[in-house]
Amino acid sequence: MTQCRFNGVSRELPESPDATLIDVIRDREGLTGAKLVCGAGVCGACTVLLDGAPVASCLLPAKAAAGRSVVTIEGIGAGALHPVQKAFMALDALQCGFCTPGFIVESVAFHDEWRAKKGAAVPTREEIAAALSGHLCRCGAYDNILRAVAEACAGRFDGGDAARSPRVEARDKVAGAAKYTVDIRHDRQFEGVVFRSRIAHAKIEALDFAEALAIPGVAAAISLLGEDRTVRYVGQQIAAVAAADRETALRACAAIKVQYRELPPVVGMDAARMPTAPEIFAGSRKSAGNASEGMAMPTPWRRNVRGPSSAFSLKAKKARNWIAAAREAGDPLLFEATFRTGAQQHCSLEPHAAVARFDGDRLTVHVSTQAVFELKKLIAKRFKLDPSHVRVIATHVGGGFGSKATLGIETVAAIELARAAKAPVRVVFDRHEELSVAGYRPGAEMNIALLADRDGRLKALSLAAHGDTGASVNSTIAALARLIYPAEAKDLSDFDVVSNLPPGAPFRAPGGPPMAFALEQAVDEAALRLKTDPIALRKRWDDNPNRRRLYEWAQGLSAWRNAAPPASKTGRYRRGVGVAAGYWLYLWQPGSKVQLSVESGRIVVASAAQDIGTGSRTVLANTIAREFELEPHEVEVRIGDSSLPEGPGSGGSRTTASLVPPALLAAQKLKQAVQQRTRREPQAGSNAPWREMIAACPDFSVSSERPEDARTLAPGVRSPLGEVGLMGHIFGWMMRRFSHIAIGAGAPSSVQVVEVEVDTLLGHVRVLEVHTGIAVGKLAAPALAQSQASGAIVQGVGYALYEGREVDLQTGDVLTAGMEDYRLPGVADTPLIDLHFDEGGFDHVLGGGVGIGEVATVPTAAAIANAVRNATGVRPKEIPLRPDRMLRLLSEGART
Amino acid sequence: MSAPMMIADGKAIELRAGGTDLSERRRSGVSRGSLIDIAPTPDMTGIDCSANGAARIGALVTIDRIANDPRIAAAYPGLAAAAGGLATPQIRRVATIGGNLAQHSRCWYYRNPHTACLKKHGSICSARGGNHLYGVIFDLGPCVAPHPSTMAAALLAYDARIDTDRRADLTIAQLLGDGANGAVDNALEPGETITRVELPPPTLGERALYKRAISRASAEWPLVEIVARAVVADGSLRLLRLAAGGVAPVPLRLAAAEAAAQGAAATGATIARVVEQSTAGAKPLAMTAYKLDLLKGLVRDLMERLLA
User: Fold this and answer.
1) For B216, which of A802, A806, A808 is closest by C-beta distance?
2) Are the CB atoms for B196 and B10 separated by under 8 Å?
3) Contact state of A39 with B293 under an 8 Å Cβ cutoff
């Protein structure tokens, strides 16, 4: 029997023994709700029901479905939404939405079986987490997912009411209807694959495509070598081929003849710093990648070490002298330590992907990108095209976290191959590429010295951070320690150590979490030595008004007030509480525009921004709806298309602060215009005057550009650039001039109080509770801000405890290139999350609020480390704090 | 289930049951030969329990069925708990016990199609001189990757025997070898198919537990895992079985620890001796010494619960 029923329709199965069910579902049946992500049965994004039971379709041989029934997300709730779908929508149990179909399929099966067996009983978090343990969500939507499944099981969503969600596109995401770049399929579309270096360091002497091009089905092959024809890491792109299908493209790659002249490789920070190490970027430093969001400032190099970058220092020499004297004198108020953080992979569930199509001299590219508008400009420049002939589309984006902010190889390859093949070409990275060469937050080694004086004041701080940046530069960690805890003197220097490893990329508050990991532990240690409450000490040292309000809130938490003293902690399981503060810069993008139109009696808001799961669609819908006293779903939002008016990138937490102010200005314009043009007045006493007037208004549109912020600032609110002085202003000018980012006044802030439990026998650290106070001003979309903050904490837990990139220090191979070895936090690792938003502090911004994406993840790892110190008496110096490291820490602690 | 069979052109033929291991290796290109799907027979798809408590489990029975079969849970709770604790629900619904026994190494050098590995006809173990963070602490052969089969550790603890289409009554040690041959994951002949697993009757009054040490809460390959069985009568240990996974190229009975318990009083002092002996003969690699602590910690955890 080779028939199978897909969502009730009988279909023939392919003969090929290697076809897996996901291939058939997506490529042949065109059911693109199920996603191929890990390809190894780890993440569950491909889950479908096989005779009613959820299975991973990426591993299931298609033949195994013979004679059976397959139900995909498209078959669930096809008529009316399933209660689980409604619950996911109502409780915002999703962000980018890429994992959502898999979660829904599994949750529906769990829900139906649970209620059949247990009736009205409500499953516990643990029971739900066990059922969903084969699913991963990189946005970290777990807290709401657990809630949604519980409430659906409790029958709260049984009614036939229309499903509502605080997220405007949620319905498409829970139904599997949202189209991502990987789902785009044109007629006659070829599949592109990037051919990559097997060697960490080599010059490519010769490249021959003849055999590859001779393979039937191969449409094009192109070189991707740079000018120096040198590869500097395993997996660096050499060429790309396009073929009728992926299998043929892979065979063509294998047929490419490449002649390497091997150069001596230097892998990792320790090897690269050896005085005898060969220089990796001699004569070609400009080809190094950028691990941060801003441009790289001119900085001296010494062989493989770039730095110091120390423009944010303050009286550096004084700081060095004071610290040296304190060391000499054995001053107990001097704390010195070396902290290490691991490389963190973005691991967006939607891989880097692009589909390029030429129509004459016009180019349309679907890209999984964080910056449709900027990307259009970069593509036009690189391929020497008229910008008005380039269109970049990203309707839905399955996560980015900083890794999709610029013109990537997937896009370059897709465009060049499409040009060569004279046909549309899709390039989709596989998970191995995604986890090896698609960017990561560089690991760091940080030497910190913090000196308090006898009166309990912060006297001097020294922080030297070396970023393990591979083939990239611009790790910026130490500089960030300038803008928190003012001191008499600060010696801050950043270094990049380049080596033959893949380049880093900006990752959610790039240097923020590592900086906080070192600094917040040093402050914690100072509090211990000064015998002061750690929050009280921060209140004394930190004059930022936003954080001072959050400290007040944190001091009132019962989790903090009732924390047991460390001395009482013995036995196998030990609990502890820790606190950490964090901030991020408030950035916005000058030139961002929002267009408002009336079309057929409806309001349409448009901007060439994109929604990577962070909620920019909803931010626009909510902002306009509030102005016109409408429901958000009554406002049509158009984003994700570079042909719309210029919009901001989704990076640097800049989107909300770039979109809301022009949206409000445009709303004022539209109101005036509607009042002038409306053909009939609203009925007297109408409770929806704008709805009626808009419905009666002829089509037209207005547009506004992001205004400058008010110059008058509330007391205590400062410009971070002003705090740093002349160097700050120069930095700010360059960021605005070359990176199109303005640095505004005020500090988006977060204070977190974390409770952990350490199993001292098995070295296992569990985060029990995270209380997060966040000050980013007024929230444009409160439910989504909560989701984003909650997800940021989950990522912070991953960074602190599980996520580690392992490499082979001889060959330069990234070994954690699959999702079972690169360990994302799972649903059962989700702590109880308590969110507190302080909505003040940004009155100088039109709308009163700024972005939240980055600040929420900055203090998490540091707070966990301080909680572990509180629980065990030993201070974690290195993350991820895996069982091997926790056990070593405990045994070292026992010896001292 | 996948026993490689060499053919003339150097490509192996592999047998396929649920495909949960093989599909990933096919997609990555680590497995390139032909496939033979195992044809299910009634004998291979059922669980039979006899009156004396012995059980026969067909090789194509899924892990999920084993985890949820009340007869297995009653007679072999360590096996049921091990089955319920491995992989993820979706995998357990499809993966079979035969496939679990015959699955291939999870070593990252083996799984990467481009890196050298003894199990891919290479001449060296890249992990030994490279990054072996998840490697063995009992260094029994050239390959330093632990055997991935949780079911094998559980079956070892229960003295199970394995039948194939060619041989009957194989012990787990006969099925998987002693770890000395780094080129293979098991001692099956080319094309040989596991058909069923036979479990002897449980011992009267025994208790059993399973636990794995991992970094997250669930859904992770074990750093170390142990299946423990014990019979305590009149205050002394009549039986102790400790089978460990994650520590050696094959699942390992902790013989010295078991011997230390034989007939000893069920006391804290005995637990301490058993814990101490659990790493007898271990020789960790440069990066795996932490597994000694995990092994001891797991043994202590399970002993304390079994003797409680």
Assistant:
1) A802
2) no
3) no
ipTM for this prediction? 0.96
Mean pLDDT throughout A499-515? 97
Q: To the nearest whole number, what is the mean pLDDT of chain A?
A: 96
**Do A770 and A876 fall within a single domain?**
yes
Nearest residue to B159 via CA among B250, B241, B73: B241
**Assigned domain for A684 exists:** yes
Beta-carbon separation of B223 and A883 below 8 A: yes
Residue B4 reports pLDDT greater than 70: no
Taking only Cα atoms into account, the Rg of chain B, rounded to an integer number of angstroms, comes to 19
A39 and A9 in a common domain: yes
- Number of C-beta neighbours around residue A259 at 10 A: 11
A826 contact B CB<8A: yes
Query: Cβ of B94 under 8 Å from any chain A Cβ?
Result: yes
The residues, any chain, with a CB within 8 Å of residue A661's CB and separated by 6 or more, are A706, A707, A845, A846, A847
pLDDT at position A714, please?
94
Domain boundary (A660, A690, A709) is at A709
Which residues in chain A touch residue B28, judged by CB atoms under 8 angstroms apart?
39, 432
Which of chain B's residues have a Cβ under 8 Å away from the Cβ of A826? 216-219
What CATH number does residue B222 fall under? Answer: 3.30.390.50
User: Chain B neighbours among A 98-117 (CB < 8 Å)?
Assistant: 106
Residue A662 lies in a domain: yes
Residue B304 at interface with chain A, using a CB cutoff of 8 Å: no
What 8-state DSSP symbol labels residue A181? G
Q: In the listed set A660, A683, A709, which residue is the last one of a domain according to the structure?
A: A709
- Nearest residue to A135 (alpha-carbon basis) of B88, B21, B23, B22: B88
Which of A51, A114, A133 is the best residue to mutate to test the B interface, defined by the most B CB atoms within 10 Å of its own CB? A133
* B171 within a domain of the structure (yes/no): no
Question: Into how many domains does chain B fold?
Answer: 1
- Chain B residues whose CB is inside 8 A of the A431 CB are none
Token digits of residue A300? 């001296």
Q: A760 and A878: one domain?
A: yes
CATH assignment at residue A33: 3.10.20.30
Do A877 and A770 fall within a single domain?
yes
B89 CB within 8 Å of a chain A CB: yes
Percent of chain A with pLDDT over 70: 99
Q: CA–CA distance from B28 to each of A38, A59, A433, A809, B175 (Å)? A: 11, 12, 12, 23, 27
What range defines the domain where residue A135 resides? 83-178
* Residues A684 and A788 both lie in one domain: no
Give the pLDDT score at B7.
45
Residue of B nearest to A45 (CA): B90
- How many whole angstroms separate alpha carbon A882 and alpha carbon A874? 15
Q: Residue A816 maps to which CATH number?
A: 3.30.365.10
**A878 CB within 8 Å of a chain B CB:** no
Of the pLDDT bands very low, low, confident and very high (cuts 50, 70, 90), residue B10 is very low
- Total domains in chain A come to 4
Q: Could you list the residue range(s) of the whole structural domain that residue B253 is in? A: 207-306
* pLDDT, position A565: 76
Q: Is residue A171 part of a domain?
A: yes
Residue A684 shares a structural domain with residue A621: yes
Q: Which of residues 133-192 of B touch A (CB under 8 A)?
A: 133
Contact A762 B27 (CB under 8 A): no
A775/chain B closest Cα distance in angstroms? 31
Q: For residue A35, which of A353, A43, A345 has the smallest C-alpha distance? A: A43
SS3 B70: helix
Is residue A809 located within the same domain as residue A889?
A: yes
User: Does A754 share its domain with A835?
Assistant: yes
**Structure letter (DSSP) for residue A706:** P
Residues 222-251 of B with CB under 8 A from A: 223
Q: Measure CB to CB from residue A828 to each of B109, B133, B217 and give the nearest one.
A: B217
- Looking at residue A801, its pLDDT comes to 98
Measured between CB atoms, does A198 come within 8 Å of chain B? yes
Q: What is the pLDDT of residue B6?
A: 46
